[in-house]
Write a structure and sequence with these properties.
heterodimer, A: 120 residues, mainly alpha, B: 108 residues, 58% helix
């Protein structure tokens, strides 16, 4: 995805002087996406530990995951100063990216904390 | 030390979470002695978890760094724009036929 953006960005850059098309800086976008992934992964781990300590099983744990991801999204949008389009290409990059990867970390740490607190 | 405030807040949040886990383990031990069923963690543990969540959220939002503007016309991208455009950097041109003279010129 990042490579695709880069090629289109460099392609557009040469025509930038002639027609004033608003393009984007691929390096900054990549750095922003890395920050998003970092935040989401960390929050999924924390959310997994919280779900495990609370003793959630089944669907309620996944509802907690959705809640925490929603809170994280709101936090990230607030961090961007509510001007998402000056830092990201689209809303999906803030709201959806890193969701599935975070879910895997979440389940791992959920079971880990649940085992430590409630089983052993 | 070179730790930022957000990082220290995150460490503190993780410590709060581990203390909440420890309290829950002790609470379960107490329930086992009193021979009662576990229905949910005590309210202090829930409060600790919320506190840890807030601290960790703070850390997760501040530690990774600040967002950079992706607009090519913004001020922070003005200087980066020229070296980023590698397409116009030409090293394989006819001037390489005369490397010795170039060196002599540079020595003067």
């Amino acid at each position: 995805m990042a490579g695709h953006n880069e090629s289109t960005a460099s392609g557009k850059k040469s025509t930038e002087a002639t027609n004033d098309v608003s393009t984007l800086n691929a390096e900054s976008l990549q750095s922003n996406m890395k920050i998003i992934y970092y935040s989401r992964t960390f929050m999924s781990i924390i959310g997994g530990v919280i779900a495990g300590i609370l003793g959630f099983t089944g669907l309620s744990g996944f509802i907690l995951y959705f809640l925490i991801m929603a809170i994280t999204s709101v936090g990230l949008i607030a961090k961007a100063g509510f001007q998402v389009h000056s830092y990201f290409d689209s809303w999906n990059q803030v709201i959806l990216d890193g969701f599935l990867g975070g879910l895997l970390s979440f389940v791992l740490f959920w079971t880990f904390a649940y085992d430590i607190v409630h089983i052993f | 030390m070179g730790f930022s405030l957000g990082f220290l807040v995150g460490v503190f949040g993780v410590l709060v979470l581990s203390h909440a886990a420890y309290s829950t383990v002790q609470y379960r031990g107490l329930l086992k002695i009193m021979e009662e069923e576990f229905s949910g963690p005590p309210i202090t543990v829930v409060a600790e978890l919320l506190l840890g969540l807030v601290f960790s959220l703070w850390a997760a939002l501040t530690v990774p760094g600040t967002f950079l503007s992706i607009h090519p016309h913004s001020e922070e991208n003005m200087i980066v724009a020229l070296p980023a455009n590698l397409d116009f950097m030409v090293f394989n041109h006819r001037g390489k036929v005369f490397p010795v003279e170039m060196d002599l010129k540079l020595k003067h």
